Amino acid sequence: METPLTLYDRLGDDNLKKLLDTFYDKVFESQVIGHMFKSTPKEVIKDKQFCFLSQFLGGPLRYNQKYGPPKMRMRHLPHPIDQAAKEEWLSIMKSSIDTLDIDSDFKETLYACFPNVAEFMVNR
Ligand code: HEM
User: Fold this and answer.
1) Would the CB of 121 count as within 6 Å of ligand 1?
2) Is 3.40.50.300 the CATH number for 7-121?
């Protein structure tokens, strides 16, 4: 029996990198959440998210290997994340996914991974 492809396999590293280039350009420009992203260089944040999403989407455990246990809620606690910040993050993710050259069903499947984990980061 064939092993089903993970979302990570279907997306591929090139698309994941493209997604994060677009996503963090928009995040850094955002009037709502951009100000939270001033302490770490964009390239470092992109690498952390690349490593995290690789494993979150079923691929290699890059974040654990490079940065240790994810503990994502804890890592977000210094940043005041309310519903408005969450909605902005999700809206930027959705519009960034939309720029990818992948079929529309897969865009929806990919986006559907994020609302629950984004809610988990809300801490205010
Ligand atoms: C809900 C809205 C969210 C906001 C406003 C937010 C904001 C932030 C901020 C301000 C940082 C730190 C940036 C810095 O170091 O300068 C960060 C780090 C990070 N975020 Fe989020 N985030 C959100 C949701 C998410 C979600 C849903 C994920 C994963 C699917 C995620 C993954 C990450 C990762 C991997 C890091 C790097 C952690 C580290 O190693 O330091 N974030 N986020």
Assistant:
1) yes
2) no
**In the chain, count of helices (H) and strands (E)?**
8, 0
What gap in Å lies between CA 116 and CA 120, rounded to an integer?
6
Supply the pLDDT for residue 121.
98
Radius of gyration of the chain (CA): 14
- Looking at residue 33, what DSSP letter applies? T
Q: Is 92 in the pocket of ligand 1 (CB under 6 A)?
A: no
Distance between first and last Cα of the chain:
47
Tell me if the pTM is above 0.70: yes
Assess whether the C-beta atom of 85 lies below 6 angstroms from ligand 1: yes
